[in-house]
């Protein structure tokens, strides 16, 4: 990575006010950072491919998708890059799956400004930021592997159906494949989404790909 005073930083968030707020914090840390902006996932990927980014500060959700889906791709493009997820989603429910997918830190937008600045400093200096809340989650995950791999919370049949969805099969195809009623598949799909705390098939596919 570059020397501390020459780092290049990508700010990826669909709200310009959030990005500008981080810019102010970065200027306090060091006014010589080179800063790039992205308001969606596609712009973020393009910027990462064309610029020498050292640290990417990325929101979790964008209008064009969930950043969980691009973390493995970012690490393929730039294995040495450091990624801080800066988001409003619940840390206790989501931090571990982002870290598991390749992020180096997870920071809640609900934190006070001094904690946000401290987290960014730690990312710049040490390449990672693990909050006390996430440290507790990591400790708990040693005794409860479901926290790191939520797929372990599924029954054998639920996991079987989840994998079929991930392979591109629809409700009717899965019902015919497993010789069950279509509404049974729909009910199990709803249960899978509730257990995994996800909202759509894209998130399901990413979970299966990353676990």
UniProtKB/TrEMBL annotation:
The protein, known as: Two component transcriptional regulator, LuxR family
Domain HTH luxR-type: 147-211
Domain Response regulatory: 8-124
Modified residues (4-aspartylphosphate): 59
GO BP: any one term: regulation of DNA-templated transcription
Species whose genome carries this gene: Chryseobacterium wanjuense
Keyword Transcription carried by entry: yes
Molecular function as annotated in GO: DNA binding
InterPro entries documented for this protein: CheY-like_superfamily, NreC/VraR/RcsB-like_REC, Sig_transdc_resp-reg_C-effctor, Sig_transdc_resp-reg_receiver, Tscrpt_reg_LuxR_C, WalR-like
Coiled coil spans: none
Pfam hit, one: Response_reg
Keyword vocabulary terms for this entry: DNA-binding, Phosphoprotein, Transcription, Transcription regulation
